[in-house]
Amino acid sequence: MTLTLQSSDQDAISALPMKWRTLFNTRFLTLQQFHNGQLTKPEAMDRLHVSRATFDRMVTKVKEMGWAGLVPQYKGVGTTATDGLPAEFIEFWKRLVEGNQRKTAPAYRLLIRLWRSRQAFEFQEVKYPCIPGYEGWPGWPNIPSGWGGKGRNLYRHQPKKLELTALRHGLGRARDLYGPKVLSTRVGLWHMSHVQFDDVWLDLKAHLLDSKKLVRPQQLGALELLSGSRFAYGMKPQLWRADGTRESLNEGDMRFLFASVLMQHGISARGTTFIVEHGTAAIRTHVREIMQRAFGDLVKFEDSGMVGDIQALTGMGDGRGGKGNPMHKAHLESLHNLIHNEMAFLPGQTGHDRDAPEFLGVIERYDEKLLSLAKRLPLETMKLFRFKTFEWHTQLVPLVAGVLDQINRRDDHDLEGWAALGFLTRQYRLMPESNEWVDEERLLSLPAPTRNAFLSMADVDQRCWQPRRFSPHDVFTRGAATSEMIKVPESVIAEILYQDLAKPRKLGDDGVFRFEDREIGAGDLTFDGLVICPDGREMRLQDGETYETVLNPFDPKKLWVYSGTRQRGAFLGLASLVHRHCRADAEGSTEAFKRSAKALAERLEPTRRRNAHLTRLETARNKHNAGVLSEHAQAKADFTRRATAILNATTTDHATNTPNKAPNEANEPDW
Predict the structure, then answer these.
(1) In which residue ranges of the chain is pLDDT below 70?
(2) Residue boundaries of the structural domains of the chain
(3) pTM, whole model, 2 decimals?
(4) Which CATH number fits domain 194-406: 1.10.10.10, 3.20.20.370, 2.60.120.260, 3.30.420.10?
C-alpha cells in the first residue's frame, strides 16, 4: 500500500486542528516507513503507542479512506459540515434555534415533536406541510440520520454566535462581542479637536441628610480625545420625587455641562467636533443651531449612533430601548471601567453590572433608619451619626474629585499613539535610592553644574534615570497653554442655557438673590445683585424686582440673569456668588466690608441723585451758617483785640503819669 497526497489533500490537512495535524504527521510517516520496509510491525506499533488490533484497524481505514483514515473523528475525504443533511433543512433548523430567545435545546425538542407528530404545522406564521428537506417523512417513525445523540450533530449547524447574540440580546452586544473592530488613532488630532460626552452611573450609594433614601451618583463627563483627559464632568444624585418616581440626569444637565465646557475652555481656533449621544448626553437641534450661527464650520457635531436592543431584524422593535454604539465611544467606555475599578473600595457598592452584593441591603436599611430620624432631630445632631455610606456634599463629592484627578494624572497607562506623538519624557535622580525624580523640562532649567551631575549619574548608573509617559493631565494642560483657543461669548452661552432652564427669582430688598439648591449644597446660596454685562460694564439690579435666572450646577459660582416680565429672555449679565469669609481671616473680612460699603453706595446712588438738590440746599445752608459763625467769631475776635489794645494802652499811660513814692509809703492808701 502506497500513501500519496494530492495538492487538494494538502489543503485539507492544513485545515485540521493542530493536535490532529501533529498526530496525522506521526502516523503518516510511520506507515510510510512500515510499507517501505524501514520499520517492522512491532517497531511501528511501539512508535505509535498502539496495540496490534488498533494498528490493524488503522491500516484498514487507510485502505478504505486514504489519508483521512489517520485522523480521529474525521468524517471522510472531501466531506463538509453540511453533507448528509438537506440544505433546506439546515435553514429551517437555524430558524427554529433563532426563534427561541434563550437556549438551543428547546428548539431540538420542538423539532423531535414535529417529526413524531407527522402533521403539517405552523411556525412563526409560516405553514409547513412537512419538515423542509424531508418530504414524505422518509423512514418515519425513526429519527433521521444526523439528528440523534440529543442533537449534538445539529448543534454544529446552529447559527453563529454573532447571529444568535444579535437576535437574543441585541445588535449592540453582538457587535461589541463578535463584530469587526474599527481601529482608529489619536495621531493627527489637536487640542480640543474632538470632545466626547457620555453619562455613567457610579456603582455605589451615598446619603443626603435631607433625603429619606440613599441616592446613587450619576455623572456626565467630557473626554478630550487627544489627551485622554476627563477634563470636565458633572455629578448629581438620583433624587426621589414626592410621587415616588426618580429624578435622573436629563437633557438640561447635558446643556449645563456643555455650557460649562464652553465657558471655561472655549473651542479650538482650528475647529472642534463634539461627539454626543442620542440619549442623556445629547445636544438638541436648537443648541447646535446657536453654535453654528456663532462659529460656522469651526464647530461640528457628531452623533455616536444608536444600536438597538432588537435591531437584527427590520420591524422587530419600535425604535426605543437602544443604546450608544460602544465602538464609537470606546475611549469613554474604557475610562468608565477605570473609574468603576478605582472607586470599588468605597462603601455602599452596588456591585458590577446588576449583581448587587448581599450586604448592600443591610447597609441601605441601616442608613435609611438613621435618615428617618431627621424629622425629630436637629441637623447638628444628624451630622454626628456615623453612617455606613458617605455623605454626598462633604465626603463623596470631594473624594470623587480626588479619584478623577488621580486618574487624569496617571502615567502608568498604555494609551494609543503616545510614542508617535512624542508624549514621552525621561526622569533623572542623583542617587539610586532617592525618590526625588526630576523630569527633562525641569532638568533643563537647572544650573549647568547641577544638570551635568544628573546626566553623569545617569551615564554611570542606569538606575538613575527612567522613561516616563506624560499623563493625560500633562498633555491637556500643555495643549491648553500652547494652542490658540476661541473664547465663547457669554451671550451665546446665555442663549444656550435660557430655554426651559431659566427660573424666576426675586432680588431681595437687601440687594441679593438668596435661595436653596440641594443638588449643589446644603444651606442658602447668595448672589450679589451687581451683574457684569456682556460688554464688561457693571449694572446694579433693582431691589424687589423679579428676574429670570439660571444656575449651572456644574459651575455654581455664577448666576446667569435675564430680564423679567419686560423683554423676557434678554440676557443682562452674570452675578457672582457671595462667599462667607472666616472670622479669623482679617484680610478677607476687610475685603468683605469694602464690598458691602460699595454695594450700599451703589444701591443708594439713585436716591442721592434724585435728592441732589436737597444736598445742595443743605450744603448751602451749612455754608451760610458756617459763614455767619465765622463772621461772628471774627467780629468777636476783632472786638477782643481792640479792647485788649485799649486796655494795654490805658495801663501804660497810667503807669507813666504816677509819681515815685518812698518805700514805706508804697502800701499806704491814697486818701
Answers:
(1) 1-3, 7-8, 73-84, 149, 181-183, 304-333, 353-355, 521-522, 565-566, 580-604, 653-671
(2) 7-70, 87-159, 194-406, 424-469, 502-593
(3) 0.67
(4) 3.30.420.10
